[in-house]
Amino acid sequence: MHFFLLTNFSSCKHEPVIPEKNGAETNGTLPNETIKNPEPYATRAANLDFIFNNQTLGTTTITIKRSEWNKLCENYRFFYKNENYVHAEKYEYTKDGTTWEIPNVAFRQRGNTSRFCPQGVDNGRLQGQMNADWSADYYTYAEQPNDDYRQVHFKVDFEEFLEGDEELKMAGCMKGVALKRMDHSWGREIFCYDLFHKYGIWTAPRASHTRVILKFIEDETDNSITTVDYGVYEMFEEVNKQSLKARAEGEGEEASNLWANNKGNLWKCSNDLTTNRMHETGVEDIVINFDENGNRVDWKWEGYSLDLKTNKDELASAEAELHGFITDLNNLPTDDSDESITTIKAFYEKWFDMDFFLKTYAINILLGMDDDYWGNGNNYYLYFDTGKKGLVNFTLFHLITTTH
Q: At what angle do helices 188-198 and 354-366 cross, to 10 degrees?
């Protein structure tokens, strides 16, 4: 079995891009489509390379009823950390003459300390955002009683409203997409992701720019369409079983190092790996609860520093695996005797693909990362790759921080 450290900086703190009026209402139309919902390429990697090609700008369009959008905003005001989805009529992505259309998708906000209400009054400071000191303008902006549209991070899930075990994946490789408002550079993260791939870091996610358009069906009035241009966003490949599977199928010249499969345990981590964190493992559940009439009654906030993202029905065995690694890590000797050096070397040879790890982290440091495991004990993933040569290996998967 191989084990992988996946450093995640997609939720790091940075100053948001907040223009005076986020999103101007337009009557523009999308470019003419030439191919709709094409048959996917032979491999997941090829499909992802096409979708995240940085040479051209794609367009993401979300069509949603005004009533559902208002519900999204009210959910935020009730409990800003919620991960409840609302229903969107359609997701569309157009890229290089190709369009994917997916109906009946799930839509929500995402992000940790970086959330704003996407429209209208923002009372987030009452919901725990008092510590959001990364934005000097937040407190005055939050109380502005206006109807301005604001750039926020979004997530779209294509399978949330499917029944049973049904599956629906864009291009056969993506069950959803994450949309992140850009930092002030409008390109730093995407440049960094691309640089990792150019140097053979096959574990790095893909990312590209996309134009984001929201189309509101005014179902509370006359069902007319209001189109709002939300500007340019970053679209990135989420860390989940689909991205893991793409890297088990084949990634360029590094195929010999690929993961055996996507069946292992994936952990999203927001703290260090000391033994006093071992009780902070679980399956995250952060939602608003509704009564039978659809009224919000309370919320659940079950968050964990070590959050299991795969094999959620097998939490006990996943915890045992993770706790074993953490225990061994923290029990390493600290002296430089020959015996201790042998023990330390054996540990790292067991858990690490050292050449790959050092190469990845060299690029990471060069790019100025400061909000990962070695900075704040934060924003990284752990993946245990089962079945790889009968061993356990430790390497790095990168999502890039924004620094300034």
A: 150
